[in-house]
């Protein structure tokens, strides 16, 4: 390799590192943008034939803002209201007195729950005030990331086909291999996304059954919220079910609260652990264990977006081995 070729590759490597450093702080937002644009692109193709690519991409961008911002604002407002009410309940000690009586009556132990809770609230207030700068920085980062999402989303819809064309041209493979890789990648992404969205809907409905059976107020709205929260890894439907348990217990409905806990630990947990892997496995022809590793590893490595990206990356690796190995005689193609 001569000096010019060496210099060219060094320049490419240096610029690749710089580009990574620029992208890395907002990698999760960019991954979310790419998946969102991927899902919305078929809809954009239908609209652009009638109203043009610019207007179609603009309208879908506005729709994304409304779909993301409005529920988020309502959720934050509801969370603040519920948090304030919870703190007021702690100060009034109504829930805590009931908990102390419950422990004394059924467990035969005396625990100063009220004192512990008041100390916990005080420490929480001190922690929040001490982390104000960090919270403000995280909020600013999220605001910039959301602006980036909307901006990039618009141009991915409008000019995404040019980006895909560039990727095809830059892929140093034979046309047949390259086309099969892109087709398989498209199928894999759709399989994972459909699986996660469908499972989130089913899990939200299953969790909502316990709210309807126990008479929790606003059960339909809370069920809809759980359908959305079910997409989020680790957290899932737990905040809504936990709030329902606290509400039922504070109103003296101990058996109903226990039912929600048991329902969440059995039916909802089984839906999340097994149905998700089963659906994605059936769509993508990957073993459930591989899907589970992709979900857990992707979440650990990439955060919330790893729930989708992890299985996709493992699926792409499997597809790449089969396609490339089949064309170049490394593996047997059936």
Description:
- With 334 residues, the chain is mainly α.
- The chain has 2 domains: 25-170, no CATH class; 175-325.
- 87% of the residues lie in helices and 0% in strands.
- It contains 12 helices and no strands.
- Helix 11 (288-302) crosses helix 12 (306-327).
Shape: elongated
Instruction: Return the structural class.
Output: mainly alpha
Main beta-sheet strand count, sense and barrel state: none
What is the H/E string?
HHHHHHHHHHHH
SSE layout:
Blueprint lengths: L2 H21 L3 H25 L1 H40 L1 H14 L5 H18 L1 H39 L4 H40 L4 H11 L8 H13 L3 H31 L3 H15 L3 H22 L7
Quick take:
The protein is an all-alpha fold and 334 residues long. Helices cover 87% and strands 0% of the residues. It has helices spanning 3-23, 27-51, 53-92, 94-107, 113-130, 132-170, 175-214, 219-229, 238-250, 254-284, 288-302, 306-327.
Q: What descriptive keywords fit this protein?
A:
single chain; 334 residues; mainly alpha; 2 domains; 87% helix; 0% strand
